[in-house]
Amino acid sequence: MAVVFIVLQSDGKKMEFLSTTSNNIWGLGFSEDFDAFISTANNTHSGFLGIPKRYFDKAKKNNETGVEKIDSHYPVHMATKNLRQVDVHGGFTAVAGHSLYTARTYPEAYWNKIAFVTEPTGRLIHRVQLEQNGSGFKEHGDGWNMFASADEWAAPIQAEVGPDGAVWVADWYDFIIQHNPTPSKESSGLDAKNGEGNAYINPLRDHERGRIYRIAYKDNDQKNTLKLDKNDVAGLIKALSNNNIFWRTTAQRLLVERGDKSVIPSLYKLVEDEHLDATGINAPALHTLWTLDGLHAFDGSKKEVISVATKALNHPAAGVRRAAIQVLPKTPATFLTMKKAPLFEDKDLRVRLAAVLATTDMKPSFEIGTALLEMAEKEENVDDTWLKHALTIASKINQETFKAAF
Question: Could you tell me if 286 and 321 are in contact, meaning their C-beta atoms sit under 8 angstroms apart?
Fold first, then answer.
């Protein structure tokens, strides 16, 4: 079993166990709303992290996994028939990376919808077409390839959106990818041997060279000129509104690492802005909420910041509503505002999911039990994979109040 981890502290000392999967996780990526996606080395080129393990643990559902396999097809579409694969023949068997297109330089069809998954044994980069499916996601059809090579040494292992909005590719550049595609003496006439780590010994293994590609959109080939300075607070705040998640997350990190709470009041306007881009996202408000959370602004010492985040529960962007649920203190007042919004009936099921999970961090009450019961009586909720899990968990934690409401 493979494990997903996430770093909770910038020094890397505290980590949270999030989920198990069927095999090695070689890819991790985030949407602009911070939905989490993974790929595993073998036969799962796209998976979605729906609920972290800590929630299942609360209900003692220890055998559940929070990751769902969402890929829609088996085969890779290679440009060469000379594949060297140990298993999952003709499919995804050395998958790495799962990076969404999170800039605005490419055509709109890519924005926050296409993920790049590399398959070095197939010598290609697959395009995963992501589509929201209830409170989760699915791969919509087969997006074929972003990159495919007939060069038998090409071995892309990571494709990421760079600071310039282009896609940058790390090519491992190796003839043999998997560690033990060892031919038998009967089939090859060779006395082939395996060495350290059971790796097939072959002089064609390359340990010194690699290649980097930049895939640019020729009709909008931008060159990056932006630089961020941790001491330029105004520049960091401005970068929270950049159209490339690379710069937004960098600015967010630098502001949090500074730890200067005097910047907090100057962030309110970004949260209060209700503008939506063409994808229905308000990225500046989303990043600002998490910046405020990183600065421990919701510790109760500043009433105004609580008020700003509470208003965000009614923001037109679903990602902002969800983030507001996640960062606000789990108090009776927060629950009442969530109920009034009404987030337990939100049109976006990801927001409903966040609302239900938030109740598991609140003190049980008759009001929470009633809200959970009302949700459980609606078919659209219990038919949804992740909402069904969340309602089961929350109802167990609120067992007495749920029974009383029933």
Answer: no
- Whether the CB-CB separation of 37 and 115 falls below 8 Å is answered with yes
pTM equals 0.94
Q: Look up residue 16 and give its amino acid.
A: E
Both structure tokens of 107? 């055509």
Cα pseudo-dihedral 315, 318, 320, 324, rounded to 10: 90
Q: What are phi and psi of 98, to 5 degrees?
A: -160, 70
Sign of the CA dihedral with 4 first, then 246, 270, and 33 last: negative
Residue pLDDT, tens place only, 93-123: 999 999 999 999 999 999 999 999 999 999 9
Q: What is the CATH number of domain 234-405?
A: 1.25.10.10
User: Quick check: 81 pLDDT over 90?
Assistant: no
The tokens for 224 are 């990056």
> CB neighbours of 2 closer than 8 A, spacing ≥ 6?
20, 21, 22, 23, 24, 25, 40
Phi, psi angles (nearest 5°) of residue 65: -110, 145
Structure-block tokens of residue 162: 């760079």
Query: Do 294 and 255 form a contact (C-beta atoms < 8 A)?
Result: yes
- Tell me the C-alpha distance between 155 and 124, whole Å: 7
Cα-based distances in Å from 23 to 43, 95, 138:
9, 11, 20
pLDDT tens profile 266-320: 999 999 999 999 999 999 999 999 999 999 999 988 899 999 999 999 999 999 9
Residues of the chain with CATH 1.25.10.10: 234-405
